[in-house]
Write a structure and sequence with these properties.
Radius of gyration: 36 Å
Helix content: 55-70%
Number of domains: 2
Largest sheet: 5 strands, mixed
Shape: elongated
Strand content: 5-15%
Strand order of the largest sheet: 1-2-3-5-4
Order of helices and strands: HEEHEEEHHHHHHHH
Oligomer: single chain
Distance between the termini: 157 Å
């Protein structure tokens, strides 16, 4: 083989080797870059703002300093009000609230190894006393941080109250979500519409089926959440005697029995002198009365209003016709007087 051929072969081999080395270097740089980005994202945003108010410690991103101060006051007040509902059960002694600007950063500031649901705008970690609240949703929309904070604090408080005994099971989800909404949510037309559609269509699951009915994504107007809110509101307002609404003494007794380790049915019998099934049937009856009588009542009001409108229109029409008759009579009198004057003029 000639030297020229050997030289050409060696050059080609070196060129191929250089190409392979270059590709490996580029791959290594890319891996290191992505790894660094991933670590930076995992570290999450810095939370330099710190505000303490009673049992609540609020840490937040730099752009949320004012919100941190306001929510510290709101959150401490909410913890006191929630504790009143728990009637002397073990209370939260310290909670850390972490405020982030963007909802997609919830997981990045969560306790180690916990993460956050991809759809959440607020998360509670009851066992470690941490809640996280976002200021903006994933589409950039502004969120109600106050309601979200109170909602998550209620989760933490209920978890602490009912989970004080070693090995205590967590509260059922319908009770957990209903209790949280009881303290954080106002009246909602969307939720009322959801309940009305469910009652009208006969799509109300039993309380025992309710936990399995919760959707994969939290949504205040979803049927399971609406039912949980309504049923817990019914339990909270129902008195222990003859179902007469009064203070929340029976509801507090119900929660206290659960905290002592009683089952749902046993706790209901002790607090309300009714089984949970009996309470559920009573609630469903009231729910049907509320939402099925509403259309009839609304229809009656519309009929009354329409009838009243017709009466008003008839009165206006009669008044207009009376005015026309009076004007016609006045005109006829004027014409008659004019004719009489002409006759007199002719005679004279």
């Amino acid at each position: 083989m000639s030297r020229a051929v050997l030289r050409s072969t060696a050059l080609a081999a070196l060129t191929a080797l250089a190409s392979v080395v270059l590709v490996l270097v580029l791959v290594l740089v890319l891996v290191l870059t992505l790894g660094g980005m991933s670590r930076a994202h995992a570290a999450g945003p810095a939370l330099p703002v710190r505000v303490e108010r009673g049992r609540l410690v609020v840490v937040a991103e730099a752009g949320l300093a004012q919100e941190a101060r306001l929510l510290a006051v709101t959150g401490e007040r909410a913890l006191t009000e929630i504790a009143d509902d728990l009637g002397g059960l073990p209370a939260v002694d310290r909670v850390e609230a972490r405020l982030v600007i963007h909802a997609e950063d919830l997981a990045a500031v969560a306790p180690p190894g916990r993460g956050a649901p991809p759809w959440a705008v607020g998360v509670a970690y009851s066992d470690v006393g941490v809640v996280i609240v976002a200021a903006r949703g994933r589409r950039g929309e502004l969120l109600d941080m106050k309601n979200t904070l109170v909602h998550e604090l209620a989760h933490v408080a209920l978890g602490r109250a009912l989970g004080a005994l070693p090995g205590s099971p967590p509260p059922p989800r319908w009770l957990n979500e209903g209790f949280a909404y009881l303290h954080s949510s106002d009246f909602s037309w969307e939720r009322a519409q959801t309940l009305f559609s469910a009652v009208l269509g006969g799509r109300v699951p039993s309380i025992h089926e309710l936990d399995a009915a919760f959707p994969a994504e939290e949504n205040e107007v979803a049927l399971a959440y609406a039912l949980a809110y309504d049923f817990v509101g019914f339990l909270a307002s129902r008195g222990a005697v003859d179902g007469v609404s009064g203070d929340r003494a029976a509801f507090r007794r119900f929660l206290a029995e659960l905290a002592r380790g009683a089952g749902l049915d046993a706790a209901a019998r002790t607090a309300y002198a009714r089984s949970l099934g009996e309470l559920e049937r009573e609630w469903l009856e009231r729910l049907r009365e509320r939402y099925l009588w509403l259309p009839a009542g609304t229809f009656g009001m519309l009929v009354w209003g329409f009838t009243a409108l017709l009466l008003v229109l008839a009165w206006l029409r009669r008044r207009h016709q009376k005015r026309l008759r009076l004007r016609r009579m006045e005109l006829e009198e004027t014409i008659a007087e004019a004719a009489l004057l002409r006759e007199r003029d002719l005679l004279n």
